[in-house]
Design a protein that fits this description.
Strand 1 and strand 2 form a beta hairpin. The chain has helices at 82-154, 159-164; strands spanning 10-15, 21-28, 44-48. It has 165 residues and is mostly helical. It has two helices and three strands, in the order E-E-E-H-H. It has a three-stranded antiparallel sheet, with no helix packed on it. The mean pLDDT is 80.
């Protein structure tokens, strides 16, 4: 969750096709869930910012479905090649697992980059507003100083006249 004001948290839950709640979390800013689909059908992913009526939030959501069936390249009648086929299966399984981990790391990295970019943009806006306020105060102080200095030299009240009497 990134952006907006206030706390960077939302409510989240997952509902199965049978309308049972599988995961329920409140006021979380990030999270990771790994679930096995036990029912066929449409799963609902619900994100809620209902408790925060003023601040908006940007959400980065990453879904990575994984097919867990084992690799099966065995053929009948090829006993001499079983060792080679087993080595190829192991390499494919290892490559698949590594690609899955890379996808998870890239998704997490993209979410962090988005969050940090939004925080930097928010800080930049605050710095600009504060700088404009400081410039306004400096201009006001300069105008007041010019007024008092002109008033001091243009005054009909003379210090020399008071000292001679």
């Amino acid at each position: 969750v990134t952006g907006g004001g206030g706390e960077l948290d939302i409510d989240f839950y997952i509902v199965s096709p049978g309308k049972t709640i599988m995961v329920s979390e409140t006021r979380r800013s990030d999270g990771y869930h790994e679930l096995k689909a036990i029912e066929s059908g449409d799963y609902e992913f619900c994100f809620s910012n209902a408790f925060s009526r003023i601040s908006w939030k940007m959400l980065y959501f990453y879904l990575n479905p994984v097919h867990d069936e084992p690799w099966n390249m065995k053929t009948t009648g090829v006993a001499d090649y079983d060792e080679n086929i087993q080595a190829i299966e192991n390499n494919l399984r290892s490559t698949s697992e590594n690609l899955h981990q890379i996808q998870q790391m890239l998704g997490t990295s993209a979410a962090r980059e988005t969050r940090h970019r939004n925080i930097a943009e928010s800080n930049n806006f605050r710095v600009q507003v504060w700088s404009l306020c400081e410039c306004f105060v400096m201009i006001c102080v300069a105008i007041v100083q010019v007024y008092f200095i002109r008033h001091l030299f243009n005054s009909s009240y003379s210090i020399k006249g008071k000292l001679r009497t």
